Amino acid sequence: MYEYIKGSVTFVGPEYVVIENSGIGFQVLTPNPFAFSKYEQQMITVYVYQHVREDVLALYGFVSIEEKRLFEKLISVSGIGPKGALAVLASGEPQQVVSAIEQEDEKFLTKFPGVGKKTARQMILDLKGKLADVVPEFFPNLFQPDGIEQKPASSAELEEALLALEALGYSAREIKKISLKLKAEQLTTDQYIRKGLQLLLNG
């Protein structure tokens, strides 16, 4: 089992990034691939989880060990696979997720792709009271933008963000509903994704 990969970011796409180490490019699925754009051609440590199934061998990567632990907690819940866990983590607001679980807020949890009432209830049953020791005081700051400089928006950046939201499992109807609001912003691709997820969850 891999713990982490240390290498350079050579590719960033809507669904995954490529981390090159010793001449080998590892395809790594992440909650928000465009959060890695600022690290392109730089050395970075990516904490990975190797997912093995009869027909699948995939690496899921995270910028922190805490993010990886939270991912592992989420996929331990019946009804939540790796893709569903990525969609939850991509929201960038883990404290909201934890709060919803602790307060048994099924309505909030069902806003994530693939999470119905039954799965939301299972999340609460399995994880309530068990997340504070995974990422303790770190929760309020996890996955927050760290002063990424804004730059003029381009149609390509917005398009990349919309493709990333689609890859997380949101429907074309849901994405279309928020796209007009996103077009009014001047953000990077990473920031478009974060903003889009906020709109989807709060809508």
From TrEMBL:
Keywords: Cytoplasm, DNA damage, DNA recombination, DNA repair, DNA-binding, Hydrolase. InterPro entries: DNA_helicase_Holl-junc_RuvA_I, Hlx-hairpin-Hlx_DNA-bd_motif, NA-bd_OB-fold, RuvA, RuvA_2-like, RuvA_C, RuvA_C_sf. Residues 154-203 are annotated as: Domain III. GO terms for molecular function: DNA helicase activity; hydrolase activity. Residues 72-91, 107-126 form the Helix-hairpin-helix DNA-binding motif class domain. It is found in: Cytoplasm. SMART domains: HhH1. NCBIfam families: ruvA (TIGR00084). Homotetramer. Forms an RuvA(8)-RuvB(12)-Holliday junction (HJ) complex. HJ DNA is sandwiched between 2 RuvA tetramers; dsDNA enters through RuvA and exits via RuvB. An RuvB hexamer assembles on each DNA strand where it exits the tetramer. Each RuvB hexamer is contacted by two RuvA subunits (via domain III) on 2 adjacent RuvB subunits; this complex drives branch migration. In the full resolvosome a probable DNA-RuvA(4)-RuvB(12)-RuvC(2) complex forms which resolves the HJ. The RuvA-RuvB-RuvC complex processes Holliday junction (HJ) DNA during genetic recombination and DNA repair, while the RuvA-RuvB complex plays an important role in the rescue of blocked DNA replication forks via replication fork reversal (RFR). RuvA specifically binds to HJ cruciform DNA, conferring on it an open structure. The RuvB hexamer acts as an ATP-dependent pump, pulling dsDNA into and through the RuvAB complex. HJ branch migration allows RuvC to scan DNA until it finds its consensus sequence, where it cleaves and resolves the cruciform DNA. Has three domains with a flexible linker between the domains II and III and assumes an 'L' shape. Domain III is highly mobile and contacts RuvB. HAMAP family: DNA_HJ_migration_RuvA. Belongs to the RuvA family. This is Holliday junction branch migration complex subunit RuvA.
